[in-house]
Amino acid sequence: VLARPASGLPRPMVKILLVKPRRVDQKRLITLPRARDTRAILGCEGIENGCWAFGGLLFVTDFRGDIQGLRALSILAVIFYHAQVPGFSAGFVGVDVFFVISGFLITGLLARELDSAGRLDLLRFWARRAARLLPNALLVLFGTFAATLYLLPALEREAAAKDIAAALIYGANYRFAARSLDYFDASVAASPVLHFWSLGVEEQFYLFWPLLLAAGVTLFGRFSRTITAFFLCVVLVGSFFVMTRYSVTAPARAFFDTEARVWQLATGALLAVCRGQVERETQGQMLRLTGMRTVIGWCGLMAIVASALAISHYASSSLLRTVAATAGTAAAIYGGNTSRGSVGTALSSRPLLWVGARSYSLYLWHWPVLLFLPLLLPSFDWSAWLAVALVFPIAAAAFALVEEPLRVSALTTRAPRLVVAGALGCCSLGAIAAAALPMFDLTGSAERAAVVELLKTAKADGPRYANGDCGRPAEPAEHPCIYGAIGGKKRVVLFGDSHAEHFFDGLNAAAVANGWELRVWIKGSCPPVDAPVYDEQRKTWNTGCDVWRLNAIRRLIDEPPDLVIISSWTGVAARMYDATTSRRHPPEISRQRWTEGFQRVLLQVVRAGIKTVVVRDVPGSAKSYGTTCIEERVPADCQTPRAQALTNRPDVDAAAAVRGIEILDLSDRFCDARYCPAMKADRPVYRSDNNHITATVSLMLKSDFEAILKSGP
Hints:
Elements: E1 14-18, H1 26-31, H2 35-42, E2 50-54, E3 57-61, H3 65-82, H4 94-117, H5 122-151, H6 154-168, H7 172-181, H8 196-220, H9 225-249, H10 251-256, H11 262-281, H12 286-308, H13 311-314, H14 318-334, H15 343-347, H16 350-357, H17 359-376, H18 383-407, H19 411-414, H20 416-435, H21 446-459, E4 482-484, E5 490-496, H22 498-501, H23 504-514, E6 516-522, E7 534-535, E8 540-541, H24 543-558, E9 563-567, E10 577-578, E11 583-584, H25 587-607, E12 611-615, H26 627-632, E13 639-641, H27 642-645, H28 650-656, E14 661-664, H29 667-670, E15 675-677, E16 679-680, E17 683-684, H30 695-699, H31 702-711
Parallel strand pairs: 5-6, 5-9, 9-12, 12-14
Antiparallel strand pairs: 1-3, 2-3, 4-6, 7-8, 10-11, 13-15, 16-17
Helix pairs in contact: 3-4, 3-16, 3-17, 4-8, 4-11, 4-14, 5-6, 5-17, 5-18, 5-20, 6-7, 6-20, 7-8, 9-11, 11-14, 12-14, 17-18, 23-31, 25-28
């Protein structure tokens, strides 16, 4: 009856239950031609496990091949997305699938314990989770710690150290949300532990959800699936509302924060709580419902595949991808029976089972390998593909040598207190060590240390606003950001994205010296361009930029200033959005759309009778010529060829085509005849991202802005 599982698969935990012949005649069960019919009549499919019937015995196992298959598909989508494999531009939805599976399995486990024992052994539950998840995670984090120490530049190493410390206490998701809200912290995507954000969400769920269930049992005197289901519905709806709200106001929080993600875990939990009860109430119809469940299961799997592949190109909203992946996973789990032709049979194929068993290990190891291998092999063009090939044997070894032996250890049952205490101790010590990482300087060079301190100072040398932050206002009318000579007879408006904002200090100093009032209307990542802009974070159209731009232009026309100074990052000209196909434009077409959109904005301002000056975007540099170069080599060598730095000029092309526009080209302030150096006057030109100038450099441009103001409207 019980076949030995395939090599590498989890060992089944078997329970043998005597079937009491109440409603069902035992002799009839023995004569049924197929075991799946027996399972259907018994309502065995309502249990979150696989099961067999043999004579009067019902064999139940904790192993579900269909869920292993879903894990396999999810981790493959995530790996291929991070490796930038064509066709997997939305493979990140694999994490959505993981959340639903976790909510389903953990809640099913807790509900069965409450049904049988009437209480939860919280210490033993947390000990099992620690033994299952922590050893492999600690191995990855300590390996990442060492690689960070030797391979990353100092500026990135400092941020990575804090990321590792946050990952060790499973709070990485909130750490990355906070970093993403800092527009100038562009290194978030390069964090070696970026993937730990989802593990933070899950671990927070594992901590608080059992506590809430235990509190419910204490409050009501028993475990009620009905009350639990109602509570989960409230959590699901509330969290979904928070996510939709954040997706407009703070996309980073919609992606990282637990309160915006718990609805996906609640979806799986609700399925675990309700599924068994519903099927027990429909036992007599189970044979007829099997076919319906098969259809539901296949529809769910197709929704998952579509959300990872097709929808990424044809959906105008990332919300559709998330909902499709979440609902599809719930449907696939519900339809995951083992009847002929079911989705469960397809998902239980041996290759998917092998990958699914190692999915956690693959998730832990794939990102550091993808990130660090190109640093080890900088001249190898196929490093991403090599990383994908290497991550499977690395993850398999970690699974076999670390994860699986400790998962099946009897220590969690015999000494759960010791396991929990050991887990807390390891995480605490690791977090302290990671926090101390920036203190290490492997070169031992005082000169190198001085350069690093200089770069750190430059990174923090942003616009020196007297109060508040004008970089991300929701509405210009609500955030006037008035500076310069407040109350002056003449008024100038600085309008654009962050590449207009980094001129603030120089323009503000000129405005104060010449008696002009300065108003700053800025929104980061939103160029003053009348065309859809692609949002890299949400993988869709940044409609918030359109709302902000329309409001800003309306106010310019209603309250016309004496002068408008406009600037924009021209790098976004290659990332424009095609609203008809819901895809990014090809680079050449994207550049044309940006230029046309910039012209339309300039025409609106000029037709309102407002004097307009376009400041050409500053020349940027690659890391090999910018801050990384300054740290690793002689600063005098860190110079971008002028021809390379000044090739992109769509802002100048657009402004030249509009009559009445003046152009302020500051290129000669940054470049000589041949090069654009990354250091001027012994100070870095750029902040850490190599395209935003520091406030110190901006102040050097005061005389240029004074000339514009003195020329008058």
